[in-house]
Amino acid sequence: MDDTDELGTGGLGTGGARRRSHGPLEDPATAGGYGDHPRRVGFFTDTSVCIGCKACEVACKEWNAIPDDGLAFTGMSYDNTVGLGANTWRHVAFVEQPRRLGRQQAGLVTMDVPAETAAQARAREPRSLGMPAPGPPDGQVGTARDMDFRWLMASDVCKHCTEAACLDVCPTGSLFRTEFGTVVVQEDICNGCGYCVPACPYGVLGKRENDGRIWKCTLCYDRLGVGQEPACAKSCPTDSIQFGELDELRERASRRLGQLREAGVGSARLYGHDPRDGVGGTGAFFLLLDEPEVYGLPPDPVVTTRDLPSMWRHVAVAATALLAGVAAVAAWKERV
Amino acid sequence: MDLWERLGSWPVLRQLTGEDRTGRAAAVKSARSASLTARTATADRVVKSVCPYCAVGCAQNVYVDDEKVVQIEGDPDSPVSRGRLCPKGAASLQLTTGSGRVHTVLHRPPYAREWREIDLDTAMDMVADRVIATRRRTWEWESDGRRTARTMGIAALGGATLDNEENYLIKKLLTALGVVQIENQARVCHSSTVVGLGTSFGRGGATTFMQDLQHSDCVIIEGSNFAEAHPVGFQWVMEAKARGAVVIHVDPRFTRTSALADLHVPIRAGTDVAFLGAIINHVLANELYFREYVAHYTNAATIVGEDYRDTEDLDGLFSGFNPETRHYDVETWQYEGMSVVAAAGERDEEYDRRTGGGSSVRSAGRSEMHGGAGMPMRGTPLRDETMRHPRCVLQILKRHYARYTPEMVERVCGIPRDLFAEVCRHLTENSGPERTASFVYAVGWTQHSDGSQFIRAASILQLLLGNIGRPGGGIQALRGHASIQGSSDIPTLFNLLPGYIPMPHAHQHETLDEFVQADSPQKGYWAQMRAYTVSLLKAWWGPSARPDNDFRFDYLPRLTGSHSTYDTVMAQLDGTCKGYLLLGENPAVGSANAKMQRLAMANLDWLVVRDFRLIESATWWKDGPETETGELRTEDVATEVFFFPAAAHTEKDGSFTNTNRLVQWHHQAVGPPGDARSDLWFMYHLGRIIREKLAGSADPMDAPILDLTWDYPTEGRIAEPVAEAVLAEINGWNADGEPLSGYTELKDDGSTSCGCWIYCGVYADGVNQAARRRSAEEQDWIAAEWAWAWPANRRLLYNRASARPDGRPWSERKRLVWWDEDAGKWTGHDVPDFEPGKRPDYRPPEDAIGVEALAGTDPFIMQADGKGWLFAPAGVIDGPLPTHYEPQDSPVPNALYGRQRNPARMVYPHEHNRYHPSAGEPGASVYPYVVTTYRLTEQFTAGGMSRNTPYLAELQPEMFCEVSPELAAERGLEHGGWATIITARNAIEARVLVTQRMAPLRADGRVVHMIGLPFHWGPNGLSAGDAANELSSIILDPNSHIQEVKALSADIRPGRRPRGPALPELVRAYRRRAGITERTGTEV
Ligand code: SF4
Ligand code: SF4
User: Which end of chain B is more exposed for a tag (fewer CB within 10 A), N or C?
Assistant: First the structure.
């Protein structure tokens, strides 16, 4: 704990700078002033068993009474909710790729298209499927012989970063770190200023049009409080979304990675599990089957407030102004 | 909050006084955050329920607070679902409490332009009047001199989404009213399953249960998009995979299931018999079958009569075919030394002659009785235990499949030889004493003009490999409605009585004894058919059913041919059928040839629709596709329409039977809103009102309804019938009124009463066994104390076969049920599917009948010979062995035989039901592509439970078609743009999804492009679109009367479809171009 607990012992105004000059911050709840708190929890989303059913999206909406996100056909494979936002806190990405998954055989051999037709097709504007993955179909007509193919699905969610930029920039204290180590927007505090939106390296937060406030995954903070797992993890038919104590999840994830590598899925990797990464590791981390970009995830996320120690000064000013008050309260407390 | 508290909760203050010096955690926790709690924790009560969508049967916890449902989520105690739910199950809260439901009764008088609201009691009274009047007007005592005692003027459709108890009341009341045209979704979804599995093994349900998939060493999913359509059940495949099993998906499309499989094998839609036949050939030719299993447990050694001729001899026909009637005489398919007394699907020549022999007049679908029983057979067949006799089944099988070679697979199915070899290798390496492989299918196999034979082919293969009755083996039929298994068991189907007892025929059965004589075999459990039938008649007609009046057997209306839902459509079009009850089914979207469905309804006198919302089948008269094209004018439509809002699963007690015969009770959480009522309420009160109106009538046609036992207790403000009382009647009781504990207690002397013999035991000891919910964690993997499965709470059928003939397990690894010599009985993990004390070395005496006639080595106890049927001497009326025929509309010629299509299929020529020319015929190139239809995870069937549920609708908001980049190039289709798809029936538009998941195939030297179409959409609701079923035709499997919607030909072109009269004109122009006449495609 030596290099993780410095916030609790460090002085005001220096913590922000100091915490990044040291190694990983493993216990944000203690750092956040929760004395006797539960162990840090999170999600391990193992995309290698995701069937893209979107139960997580629906379970999340049902639990949190999130409005629907509009009905629009996108043509992005089976993804019609497009991405995370104020009204989609779990989002399932679908990636169609001409590429082999481990030892899987897709059996999809492309055909010879008559030269004339192929030429016609090539002459047309290539049209992207809109997916982050390579491989718009037009460009491939009649060219990709003996194609291997895979269809990747992955359920994305707020990462509940160890070092969360959204928290750092929130001027109202709406965004806060919970005793579980998760990051939550408090709907009774949020004033919709929106500073947090660009701060998030993953683009998780969004402003809800009709109410002006910012919304995102709470990791079912209300459920955690009563010892229930988050709605998405509970519903996931194949246990692609696993909820639990972060330490345990990380162990599970590395075991799973080993299994997959053994099974020939060389492209498998963990994402967000490493406390040494740019956001100090995430509370929601993933097992991916390709580069993060393929799923629309930043390859090397960095906490955007790394160079923003100025905000700590504001805190210090506020604190000084209030010292008298604090003393008074302390005295009053003693009388009680 | 006083001042101090307010001050103390001030974030900045807390930041400074507390440990959270950064002010981003404990210090800023808001009042709301601090007081936050979960509504699941504070709810007043948790009510145990079951998901109302598909037949996986996921358990739900319904949280009720202040008499409102506030949350629905998975119940972790369930051994089936382990607390998980798919998006549909997860959307149950919105389904049941959202704004998508209608809460008032609506009435549309004839010719009216709009609905009007009417009160529930008035509407009930009006419907009762309509039923009575139509019944009286159309009553038919006789047809051609045979007693029919029925009305052909009324029909009902729906039941698979309803509770077993509701199905029971529907069947009971309508049958007593003389209605025979009673059908449900099971007809259009899985009727082929009952035929295929029933004739092969003796019971028409999945042979295993989903959790057992985890023990499989190889899972072949074919004809099913398991992950997509049954997501929560798919966890057991993932479990198997995690334990090292090979998962193979054989499917025309690369789907969500393929994405998780080890091997995806693209196959041309509709060619599975060729593929499976070739595996059978591979297994036989290389002697890879499980010899000891095959020799003892199947009919491989049985000798077939001399007169049998195979498709090998007759170029794609079996002996006995009559081209005039398109019907097989099954006489020559019999075992030597044994005869089938009443062949399944026996067609009455006389009836055909009398009715003019229209090709649509066919068998009454008798094959389906084998869902609960074996074929009625007499005598002892000859066998050659060496299996070398040229006429023994094994040798016939070898000859029949000899031409199904890997080269043929490549030509017919478009599957490269090496890929095929790999499937063979995985499958055979994972079968045998130490290993087992399982097959999983769904409607990708059933919905073909020879769908029953697809399932037969898999049955043969699994028997040869010794995979039936063993852990990790079996054939898993995935059914898609919450109680579609239940609505087959307690059938709202025209040809069945509860427990797969056949409905009597007008011309075949005069008395109860003749009926039983004709339909029950002498051997096996089905020999007790008289007891089952008498007990049913006692349940329905109580004290009035006595031995001296044949237990009121003549109160049952009689069949005179096929009265399936598609025959009903024809009867509506020709004006015979005048009143129609739609009970949770939406044929205007979900049935083949949707336009014919609507035009048929436009010809009715009255129509009753019961649903959550105004589905297309309720509103076609005002805003349907035909009012748009001008083919119907609202003010000309005489049909009177009633809409009754239905209660949701959370608003009523009752049981669903899941896809593995598991009867699960769901408890009422809250009362239904407004005028919404359960179908139990609707049927009970409709019956009550009708009986009150008819009270005192001396007309003999009213006797069955007045003598009917119909005194169910009711409770509460709305007088809801007590569902458990109905379950108790289904279970049955003895002369003293005590609940029976199993069907072996049933008597044929009238001393027992039982509403459905296979469900006998579900209320044993007066306890609702279906409501048992002992947590999976407290039980072994069989979880025998979670709910109740028919028959006799067995989970894995035919499990005697999990032991060797001598009673020892085949292997330690695959141990399930075995003979315990010390205890002198069968024992094991599951309830043995065998007489508990019958020794493995028991051999029946010569003259034994019933169960005694089966040996200690006969695991298929419902079959008359106790064997699994490789060859079906009866029961499947289009051939004893599966044979590849092309779909009705196919751009590819049949490479295997001179017959293009199933010669015995049922054709329905009609101006709105034209067929396409097939390959080789002029005009075939007008419809050059293959369409296949399917489900998506995010939507449900005809959309009534999903398109108006925003959380589901937004996930798949629009109708789309899936095409390959190659086809897109060929036809100039633009990704994200629109396409119009055209057949001889209609044309639809869909958004274009170009994807490499739809690979074109090379078949018989040509490239075959496929077009994928989800079938969920229709013009109503939040998410609307054209229905895929506008394109399909009514062309039926002769056994099951199921329509072919998995493979048909079509054309596709870029752009939206025309509007108004231009739409039918486009369809006509195509027909003209293809030279289509009323005879096209109707050839034998
Ligand atoms: S993460 Fe789970 S619930 Fe979400 S789409 Fe994947 S399998 Fe379905
Ligand atoms: S629809 Fe089927 S798989 Fe989905 S939750 Fe309901 S029962 Fe389970």
Answer: N
